[in-house]
């Protein structure tokens, strides 16, 4: 019997749930390891035994505590077998939710009720995100009519940018109020706006284009990023591309196709009656243009993951144009990029490894940069010192992602910054370089080569692992790996890593264990 009791206690200690056994008066008779770690008392089994759990519940000001106490008493009195309650347990650093489950113990057992608290934070966060997305969708759909439903359905079925552009034009052409529509893209080689997709009802002149230095409304929409409306034949500076569509009068509206800082062209819509483009109609079409831009951005971003053949490029930039380059220049050191993590609270963390003997100077130099909200030294390892920089948007990385490019490596040295990236073979490298040059004028193409992407199975496995990890779990395991936690002897302790994430050691190890389990599951179950 003693062996069975010991085995039961050891089993409970292995569970990730906080578990305690109470008597009828609420006195704690037993707690498992997870309960003690959450309470911050580590591995002292008997430290909480004898304290009254009910006394710790502030029922006068906390409604959840009052409900929990009432439920526990109902279980103890035999009024119900099981009681459950979901409740928040937030701190200043992060939000948490738990599920409390209380069940009666048999009469022959020591104690009256067993209480378990289960961390359901990830589920609640997912529910909140889903609820927020649902609210956004409902708000969007409340402002639009059958036109948007038709376009949305067509765009969602599209598998390429070309199909998306064509679907938008075709659905708009079916609307009686419009005489046609087309999507134009910028051709930087000829400095012109070129039709890429045309809906029924519009017969554009052969090889029709519009010069980017002209005053055509569609060109102005691309150049300014603002909606443009013009009547014909009075439209100011109308290009010949509109001649057939507006030969008998009417009007046009040009909507820039933009996602974030990335421009994908322009949507041009024609109407026979100039009065069609009133405030309500323009609002609907603006939503359509934004939806199409979002769909195009998502498709462009997926191309790099789906293609087997890629273009690898290396570009250089001046050190003073990027905060990490400026740090390397000022401190005469080298920083190597190790990835970007997007936290649940919306913050963005960039990880770097630096070869330096003075990590505090790196932190001070980074914190003085405009784009860095916070900088911290995580640990020291054989490969160098690990740093994390909190930014609003990761420089270069976000700009490349907008163009469907994948950042492979960034190295910042005193002489400048080198970035290695990959593009789908179908992409135009020139437009990517020019896009970077708009933000970082010193950008130059150093090298370019096209090759088959190797180890696709490995890349798929890595993608699956990254998708399964939460932001905190990925940050925990990345810091552990980069900081030398898995080396022997260890270069950094779990307590130091927990402090760098501003969480308790028990919470850090919980994140790390969960991440390790997911990684191993992906490897061994593949």
Which terms summarize this structure?
526 residues, alpha+beta, six-stranded antiparallel β-sheet, 16 helices, globular
Any overview of this molecule?
The chain has 526 residues and is α+β, with helices and mostly antiparallel strands. Helix content is 39%, strand content 28%. It has helices at 2-14, 33-39, 63-76, 121-142, 146-157, 161-173, 217-224, 279-306, 323-331, 359-367, 397-402, 429-439, 456-468, 471-483, 494-500, 505-524, and strands at residues 18-22, 28-31, 82-88, 97-104, 113-119, 178-187, 192-198, 210-211, 228-232, 250-259, 262-271, 309-317, 334-342, 348-355, 372-381, 384-391, 406-413, 416-424, 444-452. The strands form three sheets. An eight-stranded antiparallel sheet has the order 15-16-14-13-17-18-12-19, sandwiched between helices. The two termini are 42 Å apart. The model has no long low-confidence stretch (mean pLDDT 82).
Topology:
Blueprint: H1 2-14, E1 18-22, E2 28-31, H2 33-39, H3 63-76, E3 82-88, E4 97-104, E5 113-119, H4 121-142, H5 146-157, H6 161-173, E6 178-187, E7 192-198, E8 210-211, H7 217-224, E9 228-232, E10 250-259, E11 262-271, H8 279-306, E12 309-317, H9 323-331, E13 334-342, E14 348-355, H10 359-367, E15 372-381, E16 384-391, H11 397-402, E17 406-413, E18 416-424, H12 429-439, E19 444-452, H13 456-468, H14 471-483, H15 494-500, H16 505-524
């Amino acid at each position: 019997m003693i062996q069975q009791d010991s085995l039961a206690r050891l089993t409970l200690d292995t569970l990730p749930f906080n578990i305690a056994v109470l008597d009828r008066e609420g006195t704690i008779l037993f707690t498992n390891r997870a309960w003690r770690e959450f309470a911050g008392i580590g591995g002292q089994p008997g430290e909480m035994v004898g304290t009254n759990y009910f006394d710790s519940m502030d029922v006068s000001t906390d409604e959840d505590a009052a409900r929990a106490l009432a439920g526990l008493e109902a279980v103890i009195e035999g009024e119900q077998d099981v009681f459950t309650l979901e409740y928040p347990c937030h701190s200043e650093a992060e939000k948490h939710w738990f599920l409390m489950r209380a069940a009666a113990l048999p009469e022959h057992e020591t104690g009256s009720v067993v209480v378990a608290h289960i961390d359901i934070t990830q589920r609640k966060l997912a529910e909140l995100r889903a609820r927020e997305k649902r609210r956004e969708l409902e708000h969007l759909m409340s402002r639009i009519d059958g036109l948007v439903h038709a376009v949305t359905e067509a765009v969602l079925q599209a598998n390429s940018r070309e199909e998306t552009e064509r679907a938008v034009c075709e659905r708009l052409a079916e609307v009686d109020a419009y005489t046609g529509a087309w999507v134009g893209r910028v051709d930087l080689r000829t400095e012109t706006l070129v039709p890429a997709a045309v809906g029924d009802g519009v017969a554009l002149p052969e090889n029709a284009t519009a010069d980017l230095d002209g005053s055509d409304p569609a060109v102005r929409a691309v150049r300014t990023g603002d909606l443009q409306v013009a009547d014909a034949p009075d439209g100011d500076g109308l290009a010949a591309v509109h001649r057939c569509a507006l030969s008998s009068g009417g009007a046009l509206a040009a909507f820039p196709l933009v996602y974030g800082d990335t421009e994908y062209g322009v949507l041009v819509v024609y109407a026979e009656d100039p009065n069609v483009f009133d405030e309500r109609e323009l609002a609907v079409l603006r939503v359509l243009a934004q939806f199409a831009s979002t769909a195009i951005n998502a498709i462009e971003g997926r191309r790099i993951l789906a293609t087997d053949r890629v273009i690898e490029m290396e570009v250089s930039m001046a050190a003073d144009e990027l905060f990490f380059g400026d740090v390397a220049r000022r401190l005469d050191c080298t920083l190597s990029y190790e990835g970007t993590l997007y936290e649940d609270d919306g913050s963005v963390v960039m990880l770097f490894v630096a070869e330096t003997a003075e990590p505090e100077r790196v932190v001070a130099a980074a914190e003085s940069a405009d784009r860095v909200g916070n900088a911290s030294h995580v640990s020291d390892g054989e490969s160098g010192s690990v740093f994390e920089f909190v930014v609003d948007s990761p420089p270069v990385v976000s700009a490349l992602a907008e163009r469907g490019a994948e950042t492979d490596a960034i190295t910042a040295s005193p002489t400048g910054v080198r970035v290695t990236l990959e593009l789908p073979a179908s992409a135009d490298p020139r437009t990517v370089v020019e896009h970077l040059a708009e933000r970082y004028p010193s950008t130059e193409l150093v090298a370019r080569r096209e090759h088959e992407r190797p180890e696709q199975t490995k890349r798929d496995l890595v993608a699956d692992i990254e998708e399964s990890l939460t932001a905190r779990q990925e940050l925990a395991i990345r810091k552990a790996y980069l900081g030398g936690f898995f080396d022997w002897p260890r270069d950094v302790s779990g307590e130091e890593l927990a402090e760098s994430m501003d969480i308790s050691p028990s919470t850090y190890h919980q994140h790390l264990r969960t991440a390790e389990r997911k990684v191993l599951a992906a490897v061994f179950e593949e």
